[in-house]
Each structure stands twice: as structure tokens, then as C-alpha cells.
Amino acid sequence: MRRPTSIAPPKGTLGVLTPGMGAVSTTFMAGVELVRKGYALPIGSVTQLATIRLGQRTARRSPLIREFVPLEKLENLVFGGWDIFPDTAYEAARKAGVLEPQHLEQGKDLLSTIQPMTAAFDQAYVKKLDGPHVKKAKTKLDLAEALKEDIQRFKKESGAQRLVMVWCGSTEVFQTPHLVHADPARFEKAMKENHPAIAPSMLYAWAAITSGVPFANGAPNLTVDIPALQELARGHNVPICGKDFKTGQTLLKTVLAPGFKARMLGLHGWFSTNILGNRDGEVLDDPDSFKTKEESKLGDIFGWLGYPMQIKVDYLCRDSILAAPIVLDLVLFLDLAKRAGLAGIQEWLSFYFKSPMCAPQLYPEHDLFIQLMKLKNTLRWLRGEDLITHLGSEYYD
Q1: Is 250 exposed, middle or buried (0-12, 13-18, 19+ CB in 10 A)?
Q2: How far is the CA of 139 from the CAs of 11, 190, 196, 198, 332, in angstroms?
Q3: Has residue 360 got a pLDDT over 50?
Q4: What is the pTM (predicted TM-score) of this model?
Q5: Distance in angstroms (rounded) separating the CA atoms of residues 377 and 248
Q6: Domains observed in the chain
Q7: How many CB atoms are closer than 10 A to CB 229?
Q8: What is the tens place of the pLDDT at every residue in 340-349?
Q9: 3-state DSSP call for residue 51?
Q10: DSSP state of 80
């Protein structure tokens, strides 16, 4: 890949569109507002808090990432989205129960103004949910075109110069690639024919990509992990990434597993329990939706001469709290990628996903630390800095 000669500056405001305005998206929006007001710190956000080493260690150059690459500032983010319920972001956040009352009140002025657009929704793909705030159309293509109109209307009304879309909706029923996913022509024909292989999340992705809007898939749905939408993304110069936000147990596993692998220790399997809250538990009570989630996860260790050992970890986390800074980072990095002229799958953002997308001829990288090195080396490459290895210094001539 040829390095871009320049990165367009982040002029104006950046609109963030989230299909799904539930626990994750409202926690993200509220958190950004609290950080902007000085009530909180952006804990968990690599873009806001992490540094990046440049050059040799002796140079002692380690700026903040947000000072090294031209990311949009939090003050310039505006929010919108779709949901099957008409609740404002404030009402949705209150019902989700993630945030304490104090934080809800601190973000109320903003959240109360964010009204979801009617959603493109089909209960056949999320059987345990149903809501009144949905679009009606003759075909799936009509629904997708209506989403494109929503995107343009939001851009005009919000005054945003650029947009990013992040799927924060529910897990859809399990799907495997189908012939209609093979290329854009077949995909669009299938939308016209209301083909069952075209899920609602794909409509949002198609609408975003054909509108020139970067798209991230935060659920384990198939969505943009198909040739048709990947070809469209390259053709429209749109960066895409996914899938399934790396939160909870999977985050911990991608920290522990590389350690076992590095020491060549054996692993019999993962035995773990998920306690699901909010609508996640309701949606995943359906076996078809749970299979989509299950397919994206793995399930005592043994050492010298095969002797068994055991690791026990008491990890009580909050998925929405872990997911919110991921949404923020993806928004800012995808916007950067778009301004840098990068298109198609952004494998360097694998750091944020449980089932990271990669080119068809490759295998995905799951090691969190290799993923982080790829992310930071991509930022160095974008800015014309040397990539970091242990070689190339005066100590390794």
C-alpha cells in the first residue's frame, strides 16, 4: 500500500451515527459529553490517553497519539442514530441503567436532544425484540435508500462536515455467506427481491458505504464481512472494520492466551460464565442470535510432561463501560483513515474486535499486543516515521 502524501485536516464537525441507541451508544455519548464538560476522564480510550514512541528509545519522543496524528477533537462531535424505540438518548440511558444518576443528570442537556430516527428493522433477525419505531417499505432496497436519506438529512441538520457510522445494535441471527453476498450487483438485486440473506445491519452498511461514510461493525453479525460490501467500500474509498467489540471475557482471553502461547504451554479450554444485562440478555435468549455470539468465542492449562495446572480469574466487568471508549476510538480512527485516503478493510483496527476482519487470503490476528503494535505502526507509517522494531539502533548494527 502506498503511503498517503498528506492527511486532510479535520475541518468542521464530525457526525457520529449509531444504528441502535441503547446501553452502548448512550453510554458513549454521555461519556463524551462528561469529558467535554470536565466532569470525567476518557478512561479506556487509546486515542485520548495513550502515547506512541517515535524513533529510538534514546530520542525520548513519546507524544500522545491525539497530538501525533490529526484526530478530530471531542468538542467537535455531534450525535445521531436509529432505534426501534422512540426514546431520547437520555430516556434510553436511564432505562439501560449503566450510568449513575449523577452522570445521567450531567449529560441530560445533550442526551435529551438526541431523538432516534425510525429504524430499518425486521424481527426475523432479532426474534426477542420488537418495537414501534420502525420504517415501512416495499423492499429492502427501499429501506436502504431511506437510510441514505436519513444520513443526508442528519448531515444537513447537524451541520456535520463528515460522518462515521458504528453499529451499536443487537446481535442478529446467525448467518453464513450466501451467493447474493458475492458482489454489489447480486447484493442490490437481492435487496430488491427481499432476499432473507440480506439482514438489516447490511442495509445500514450499504447505506453508509454508498454515502461515503466509514462503517464499523460492533456486533458479531456478518454485516460487512462479505465480498459485496467490501468491494463497494474500496470503490467508494470508504474504510470499514469489524467485528464485535472486544469487551468482557474476550478482552481478558486475548491478554492471557498470548502469554500461554509465548511460553508454549498447553490449553485444554476456557470454561467461563457470562452474566448478560440490558437488552443483550433478552436478545441472546434466542438460540439463533446466541449462535452468532457463540461462533465468535472460544471456550485448565498444562505444562512440562503434561502436568495439569489451573488458572482462576474473577473478572466482573461492565460491557457498556468497556465498549464506550472503543466506539470513540473507532470513530476518530475511521475518520482519520478516511481523510488519509485509506479504503476497505482496516486490519490495523483489529485491536478493538473479537473477530477482526482481514483480507480473504489472510488469517486474523488475535494477539492483543501484536494488534496494538500494528495499530501504532500504522500511525507511524501515516506520519512518515520509522516503524518500531528491536533492530536498526546503534546497539544492533
Answers
A1: buried
A2: 37, 10, 12, 11, 34
A3: yes
A4: 0.91
A5: 26
A6: 14-246+318-382 (3.40.50.720), 249-309 (no CATH)
A7: 25
A8: 999 999 999 9
A9: strand
A10: E
